[in-house]
Amino acid sequence: LAARRLRPLRPAALIYVVEQRLEALSGIDNIDGIEIIRADAVKFISHRLMKMDAADWIVPAVPFHVAYHWIVQVLMRTGTVTTLDLYKQLHPLLINPLQGDGGAIYTSNADFRCPDDCNEPNDHCTITGKTRPAIMYRHLQNLSLPGISIRVVRSHQLAPGVGGYQVKALIEALAWAKKQPSPMLLATACQCHAVLHTFRFYSDHPNGR
Question: Which of 78, 168, 174, 189 has the most C-beta neighbours closer than 10 Å?
Answer without folding.
Answer: 189
